[in-house]
């Protein structure tokens, strides 16, 4: 990759500021494959040995402290000891051991806040792993807990964002969009939660605007985008951080599809570098493009392939490449149309107005029949002398549902 060398030059020194020696060794090995003569490709064995010894010493110290806490049977101390040990393993990138340590906190949690902190730590590990299904499960569990009023907004904003990221990572773009749209604007300034600053370590408020906007464009129709995104008072705060996403959504809602796609295309390379969004950029863009073509074609009975090529340009795009794209959309059931390869036309299926008229008449007749039956039922009740008395309501009762029947009264 063209940016690999620059990325490794930044990553290798940064990795030496952490405790994960294996990551440092992997990076130097990769750099040696790309540029064998690079100075940074030479392994700093002194640092590796020193860091490994420090890690072993710290692990032993924390385990000894934890054993002492268990002997004293102080639940809060045991919980904090497990948390410290889990964080230590996490810093060394020993994710399985970190997960086990955090899970052992559960039996020593004495408040809902402790449980929420534990589940968010597990969500963070599942995001780093990544294990998207477990990340969503942990985040939703944290959000379902009953916390104090001063803690609830902080935990909910973070867990909602993690839920959205989990859905995005697993390719479920519609639920991801709704999750991101529900994130409270306080996420940007909430600070560390469960001793993890999610807005710095996982995703920023700008990321939420981009992730939520792209997932919404890929999964919602124009009316939903208008109601749930552009008119969403909470999400508007995020869109202000990424105004081009707002413009793209506005163009899509205004049926200006080529302008929408042009804006997104200008940011494609940036999004491809995003560690979470990158693997989904091409799929999201393809979904948005396919939706745009379908919506563009709705008011027409036929459109030339050259006109579609101009309306939805691509580098090196020709009517032939557009035809291949349309064939794929038709085969997958996205577009209901036919292609005239001789005249190079995309043709909408003919509408059977006679069948539509018959269908409308039948629906109207069914509705009229239903109304007439209700009226006949009412007439029969009156002729039979049926009297339905309102029951005596008790205090606080607003919706009485029972009725009393007089003796000998029947329906004729």
Describe this structure in words.
The protein is mostly helical. Among the domains are: 142-297, Alpha Horseshoe (Serine Threonine Protein Phosphatase 5, Tetratricopeptide repeat); 300-347, Arc Repressor Mutant, subunit A, CATH 1.10.10.10. Helices cover 65% and strands 2% of the residues. The chain contains 20 helices and three strands. A three-stranded antiparallel sheet has the order 1-3-2. α3 (45-72) packs antiparallel against α4 (75-91), α5 (95-103) packs antiparallel against α6 and α9 (173-181) crosses α11 (205-219). It starts with a helix and ends in a 29-residue tail after the last helix. It comes from Aureobasidium melanogenum (Aureobasidium pullulans var. melanogenum). Residues 175-353 form the PCI domain. It is found in: Cytoplasm; Nucleus. Pfam families: PCI (PF01399), RPN7 (PF10602). Residues 390-412 are annotated as: Disordered.
Strand runs, count: 3
Q: CATH class of the domain at 142-297, anyone?
A: Mainly Alpha
CATH architecture heading of the domain at 142-297: Alpha Horseshoe
Q: Alpha-carbon distance between the termini?
A: 85 Å
Oligomer: single chain
CATH T-level topology of the domain at 142-297: Serine Threonine Protein Phosphatase 5, Tetratricopeptide repeat
* Average pLDDT for all residues: 89
Shape, please? flat
Q: Indicate the percent of residues in helices.
A: 55-70%
Family: Belongs to the CSN1 family.
Protein name: COP9 signalosome-like protein complex subunit 1
InterPro entries: PCI_dom, Rpn7/CSN1, Rpn7_N, WH_DNA-bd_sf
Keywords: Coiled coil, Cytoplasm, Nucleus, Signalosome
């Amino acid at each position: 990759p063209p940016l690999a060398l620059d990325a490794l030059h930044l990553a290798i020194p940064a990795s030496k500021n952490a405790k994960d020696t294996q990551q440092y060794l992997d990076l130097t090995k990769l750099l040696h494959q790309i540029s064998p003569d690079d100075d940074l490709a030479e392994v700093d064995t002194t640092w590796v040995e020193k860091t490994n010894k420090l890690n072993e010493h710290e692990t032993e110290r924390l385990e000894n402290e934890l054993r002492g806490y268990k002997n004293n049977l102080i639940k809060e101390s045991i919980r904090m000891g497990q948390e410290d040990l889990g964080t230590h393993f996490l810093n060394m990138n020993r994710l399985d051991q970190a997960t086990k340590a955090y899970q052992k906190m559960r039996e020593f949690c004495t408040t809902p806040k402790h449980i929420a902190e534990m589940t968010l730590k597990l969500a963070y590990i599942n995001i780093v792993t990544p294990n998207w299904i477990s990340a969503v499960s942990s985040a939703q569990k944290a959000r379902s807990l009953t916390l104090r009023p001063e803690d609830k907004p902080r935990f909910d904003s973070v867990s909602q964002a993690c839920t959205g990221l989990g859905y995005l990572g697993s390719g479920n773009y519609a639920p991801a969009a709704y999750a991101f749209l529900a994130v409270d604007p306080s996420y940007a300034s909430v600070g560390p939660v469960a001793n993890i600053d999610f807005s710095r370590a996982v995703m920023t408020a700008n990321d939420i605007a981009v992730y939520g906007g792209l997932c919404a464009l890929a999964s919602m129709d124009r009316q939903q985008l208008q109601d749930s995104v552009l008119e969403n008072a909470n999400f508007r705060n995020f869109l202000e951080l990424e105004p081009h996403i707002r413009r793209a959504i506005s163009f899509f809602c205004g049926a200006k599809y080529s302008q929408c796609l042009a804006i997104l295309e200008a940011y494609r390379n940036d999004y491809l570098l995003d560690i979470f969004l990158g693997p989904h950029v091409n799929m999201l863009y393809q979904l948005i493009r396919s939706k745009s073509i379908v919506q563009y074609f709705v008011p027409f009975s036929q459109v030339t392939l050259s006109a579609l090529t101009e309306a939805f340009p691509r580098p090196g795009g020709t009517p032939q490449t557009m035809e291949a794209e349309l064939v794929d959309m038709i085969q997958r059931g996205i577009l209901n149309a036919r292609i005239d390869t001789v005249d190079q036309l995309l043709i909408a299926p003919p509408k059977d107005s006679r069948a539509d008229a018959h269908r409308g008449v039948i629906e109207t007749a069914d509705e009229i029949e239903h109304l007439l039956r209700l009226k006949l039922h009412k007439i029969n009740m009156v002729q039979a002398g049926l009297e339905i008395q309102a029951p005596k309501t008790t205090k606080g009762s607003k919706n009485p549902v029972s009725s009393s029947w007089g003796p000998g009264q029947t329906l004729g």
